[in-house]
Amino acid sequence: MPGLTRLPDRLRVKPNRRYRLHDGDADRAFGWDEADARMITAQLAIRLEELQYRMYADGRYALLVVLQAIDGGGKDSTIRHVFSAFNPQGCTVTAFKAPSPEELRHDYLWRIHRHAPAHGEVAVFNRSHYEDVLVVRVDKLAPRNVWQARYQQINQFEALLTGCNTRIVKIFLQISRDEQKRRFQERIDEPRKQWKFDPDDLRKRAQWQQYQRAYEDMLSKCSTRQAPWYVVPADHKWLRDLAVSQILLETLESLPLKFPAPKYDPKKIRIR
Ligand code: AMP
Ligand code: MG
């Protein structure tokens, strides 16, 4: 039975250990096939919707989902396919681009913190504060000692959030270099997708190795028990969506969600 392979345990990055990425891992499927994966993902969407409803009603916990990936890794597509299970009332999505001049005059977490989820809500970050140890490091936008200090600052920031009833899950979508090439080519060839391609993406592709090192440091230094990283093999979109759905479900199921008791006695209410 393919359904026996629980993906979250396989994909969670253990705290305080060196994590290495291998290009060949990006198309792993753990014995799942596409038809089963799609069927189960559709079933999980119903559970996710129900649990988000409870979370919103309960109002005591928040969920922050951080999505990181290289260009073409499938962040937008994951949001469209998996997070559509959630009611838009109670779910926000924030895409973090290069910081504006105003944002650059503040500390790098300033723009992030204001989009953290309120209790009862889910917030999805399409890119995040981790760009400040990724693109900033690879493109040398800050000196080494500045970005080096950020791993610990980020862990402390996330500890603040988790200490205040926000669950955090961080998902790195891993694609192979060949798969990125295929996806870029598709973007260039298909008129509907041409807007998604930025010639600057090729400059970043040429920095593939530097990015892999930066991702490895992020995963090795910032996966904590309270705010774990998951490395999701994302060459197969169906495996990716299944894995992300299972991770979200496991996280929401770990919360002691309750519907609030009514502040009135339902038996005593008569509607005339
Ligand atoms: P996209 O997600 O394809 O729309 O691209 C957003 C761009 O913003 C990417 O090239 C990111 O590397 C860039 N970006 C996001 N956050 C930062 C940051 N803190 N510093 C510099 N560039 C960033
Ligand atoms: Mg892009």
Features:
Rossmann fold, 12% strand, 5-stranded parallel beta sheet, alpha/beta, binds magnesium ion, 272 residues, 12 helices, binds adenosine monophosphate
The proportion of residues forming helix, as a percent range, comes to 40-55%
**How far apart lie the N and C ends?**
55 Å
Mean pLDDT: 97
Q: CATH fold name, please?
A: Rossmann fold
Structure notes:
By secondary structure, this protein is an alpha/beta fold. It has one domain (7-253): Rossmann fold. The chain is 44% helix and 12% strand. It has helices at 7-11, 34-58, 75-82, 101-104, 110-113, 135-138, 144-148, 150-163, 177-189, 200-206, 208-222, 237-253, and strands at residues 62-69, 91-95, 122-126, 166-174, 229-233. The chain has a 5-stranded parallel β-sheet, sandwiched between helices. Bound molecules: adenosine monophosphate (AMP) and magnesium ion. Residues 96-99, 127, 131-132, 135-136, 141 line the site of adenosine monophosphate (AMP).
Overview in brief:
The protein is α/β, with parallel strands linked by helices. It is built from 12 helices and 5 strands.
Q: What's the helix and strand layout?
A:
Layout (H helix, E strand, L loop, with lengths): L6 H5 L22 H25 L3 E8 L5 H8 L8 E5 L5 H4 L5 H4 L8 E5 L8 H4 L5 H5 L1 H14 L2 E9 L2 H13 L10 H7 L1 H15 L6 E5 L3 H17 L19
Parallel strand pairs: 1-3, 1-4, 2-3, 4-5
Helix pairs in contact: 2-12
This protein binds adenosine monophosphate and magnesium ion.
The site of magnesium ion (MG) has 3 residues, from loops.
